[in-house]
Amino acid sequence: MKRISVSVAALAIVALAVAWYLRRGDAQTTSYRTEQVTRGDLLFTIRATGTVQPEEVINVGAQVAGQILYFGKDANGKTVDYGSPVEAETVLAKIDDSIYSAEEAQAQAQVQSAHAAVQRAEADLEQLKAKLNQAERDWQRAQKLGPSEALAQSTYDAYRSAYETALASVAVGRAAILQAKASLAQAEAVLRRAQRNLGYCTIKSPVKGVIIDRRVNIGQTVVASLNAPSLFLIAKDLKRMQVWVAVNEADIGKIRPGLPVTFTIDAFPGETFRGEVGKVRLNASMTQNVVTYTVEIVTDNSNGRLLPYLTANVQFELDRRANALMVPNAVLRWRPSPEQVLPEAREAFERSAGRKEKPGGVSGSPSGSGAGSAATGNRAVLWIQEGNFVKPIRVQQGLSDGNHTEVQGEGLTEGMRIVAGVQTRSNSNQDVATNPFTPKFPPRAGSAKQK
Description:
It is built from 5 helices and 21 strands. It is rod-shaped. It is α+β, with helices and mostly antiparallel strands. It has 4 domains: 126 residues, no CATH class; 95 residues, Efflux pump adaptor protein, beta barrel domain (Elongation Factor Tu (Ef-tu), domain 3, Beta Barrel), CATH 2.40.30.170; 67 residues, CATH 2.40.50.100; 102 residues.
């Protein structure tokens, strides 16, 4: 009996030892991952993407059809090409004018013929006037004699008819002159049109600027129809550029003329350009049920680094805080479990939480989407470590740029460490960082613990 009691006691000791070992293997100590309260400038922006555009672009086209014979010379004496600087009235290209020269010569001949017709009509009128004078004198003599034995009735009637005919002929002559002058005016109009078409064969620059696009080649035939074919695209002043940005309708109410803007260009990494909002266009566009408005940003390009049609990553500076206390948004999202809260504050924590959120969940703080937030005055809770527990500090949220948020609160100082998450350390000395959004599953029944 004594031997059995000793055996039972030994088995109990072994069981306790095994249980202690297993508990020791499962034992973990909890440590907190913290972030530091910093002080700096905070900027609330709206981000969008746009395209660099010349401030004023002139599309030079052709108003006549024909073959391109040659290109002109730019301000440097070189053949007009991409990037060529040109002055106003510089010849850009020449279109074959053989047909239009012939039409102009034909119109010149028609004008000369019309001039001759006017002169002939005037000469005919003078001749008719002379016949009228002769008929008028004959008629006056016939009236003095009257129908008598000296002047037969038929002769009397003939003088009268001749006078009336001469009078009507003069009126016809005057009308012929008017008709000849009208034909002359028509011929001159045709001549002016022919000369204008002949002049259109010489393509000239309407302004001083830089050619940013040449759309024809020598030997190519351009055909003018309802829409004039585009030959050259000229930027009037590349020292003043614009950025055209498509802004979502949800953000357009925050954009106003004069708003400061910063933007970056992928072609110049690490360099930031500045500008301001010039205007907001009212002709909105809809793409896949998304309404956007085009915002024009004016920027200086005196150094000529900005090239037309570069892609710009734009930030509209809606608000700014200088020398503000701020924390990463991650510390505003983290919430402890009740067991991690300092015992003195645990009851108030559970009561304020109301069990609306799960431990380790999101507390409704800024999302960190990168778009920023202009909302200020929202209350939030930060957690600082005190021993193995965390203690709350109540703060007021201010401006947010999507990564950091301005905070103000009693006892909050620069350099203070704020809890942002939990790190678990097992006896195997292996750190495991826990993500509050990772789902936790219960252990499977009968599963063996791996050593």
